[in-house]
Design goal:
277 residues; MetI-like fold; single chain; mainly alpha
């Protein structure tokens, strides 16, 4: 009986916690269909005949923020950087696990150290180096994100690769596969759960990141969605809340859809990477 009561308690607790997390998102969606005057005066009220403005906020937000161009650049940065992180760090993790010498262990330690160094310690130096190396563009940002995203990715991938039998590598070698073919044709398909896990984590980070693109890119030429949303602010801090709500909803849709399509793999990949080896 006590176990049943405890089960009900935790069910109710986590249900309330879920509502608390989802409430701000629901509030943004609801307010995106209300006039900007009513967003400030009646933020928690549902739209009615007087306050409902249809898609006007979305249209105005797209026009004022340059959303379509920002969407393209956000997509280019997110897809390109995620692909580079997945490819580079998965190969690195495989090499570290299979070589397993002093240098490989030191390299793994360097990647793990990347997880604990605060971004604020390197942000100004990063901006200076980025400008000197000509990386102040969306494609240069791929390289920067590779550096910052490598720590977590290598950590997850090394844990997963430790659970892949070395006999697979040996069998591929006997069949005449070199290291490149062995990785892409044998190891990479086995790593699918961890690849999807890292992809989800990286996409959610890259798509919503504001500070790194703002510091690294020439924002007069290139704007990501978070930067475009910030530019909806007018003089003296005035904000068109209707347009901002509409743009925020549009910005959430791609990453939420990607997460819902892939979320069943995330726990599988994290657990596999945490306990294997």
């Amino acid at each position: 009986m006590n176990e049943v009561k405890h089960g009900r308690f935790w069910t109710v607790f986590f249900a309330l916690l879920c509502v608390a997390y989802l409430f701000p998102i629901a509030l943004v969606v609801v307010n995106s269909f209300k006039g900007k005057v009513y967003i400030a005066s009646e933020p928690f009220a549902l739209p009615n005949a007087e306050t409902f403005v249809g898609l006007d906020n979305y249209v105005r937000g797209i026009e004022l923020s340059g959303f379509l161009e920002a969407f393209v650049w956000s997509l280019v940065i997110t897809v390109g950087a995620t692909a580079l992180i997945l490819l580079g760090t998965s190969m690195t993790a495989w090499w570290i696990v299979r070589v397993n010498n002093g240098f490989a262990k030191s390299l793994l330690g360097a990647f793990l150290l990347n997880l604990v160094v605060p971004f604020q310690m390197v942000m100004f130096t990063l901006a200076w180096v980025t400008d000197r190396l000509g990386l102040s563009n969306p494609f240069g940002l791929w390289v920067i994100y590779l550096g910052f995203g490598a720590g977590l990715a290598v950590f997850i991938f090394t844990g997963f690769v430790k659970g892949i039998p070395i006999e697979l590598d040996e069998a591929a070698l006997i069949d005449g596969c070199g290291p490149v073919r062995t990785f892409f044709q044998v190891i990479l398909p086995v790593m699918k759960p961890s690849l999807i896990t890292v992809a989800i984590l990286e996409v959610m980070w890259l798509w919503n990141d504001y500070l790194l693109p703002y510091l690294s890119m020439d924002i007069k030429k290139y704007k990501t969605i978070p930067i475009a949303v910030q530019y909806l602010k007018g003089g003296y801090g005035s904000v068109d809340m209707g347009a901002m709500m509409g743009v925020l909803v549009l910005a959430m849709i791609p990453v939420v859809a990607f997460y819902l399509l892939s979320q069943k793999h995330i726990i599988k990949g994290v657990v596999a990477g945490a306990v294997k080896g």
